[in-house]
Amino acid sequence: MKAVTGFITGLVFSLGLTLSGMTDPARVVGFLDVAGDWDPTLIFVLGGAVITTFLGYRLAWRRSTPLLGERFQLPTRRDIDGRLLLGAALFGTGWGLSGYCPGPAIVSSSAMTLPLAGFLLTMLLGWWLATRLTHAH
Fold it and tell me: Which residue ranges run through the membrane (predicted)?
């Protein structure tokens, strides 16, 4: 049942990313270009994500256990450290330069382009490097 639910959730997520325009790097870069030719259309996607997250957490906190799991896996850390800031800066830089973040990049991989392949390779390299550096400490 967890696999079916995961598949359906992933399918809905990928359809949402596609329909919202998040898989179009030009639209994303246009949204991030607030000092230039700003495209505000993705503000609705951002607003929808914030509202969904807000409501989802409120619903999750009312339950003692999740529907399809033994326990919730909620974040427990609340501190801001150098690793968090560096990771956020790298994520934002990559997103701004390429117009992709991981979810839309994976959804877009069915229509692979050279820039997308470069993004996916550097994302995997960054993931591997972060894992190695994190486990080294």
Answer: 41-61, 82-100, 106-130
Domain parsing of the chain, residue ranges:
2-136
Tell me the H-state helices in the chain: 2-20, 25-32, 43-62, 82-98, 102-108, 114-136
Q: Give the phi and the psi of residue 97 in degrees, each rounded to 5.
A: -75, -35
pLDDT in tens, 6-53: 899 999 999 999 999 889 999 989 998 899 999 999 999 899 999 999
Query: How many beta carbons lie within 10 A of that of residue 91, not counting itself?
Result: 14
The pair phi, psi for residue 81, each rounded to 5°, is -120, 180
CA distance 41 to 36: 15
Residue whose token pair is 């030009």: 26
Q: State the residue for tokens 């080294």.
A: 136
Q: Are 28 and 99 in contact, with CB atoms under 8 Å apart?
A: yes
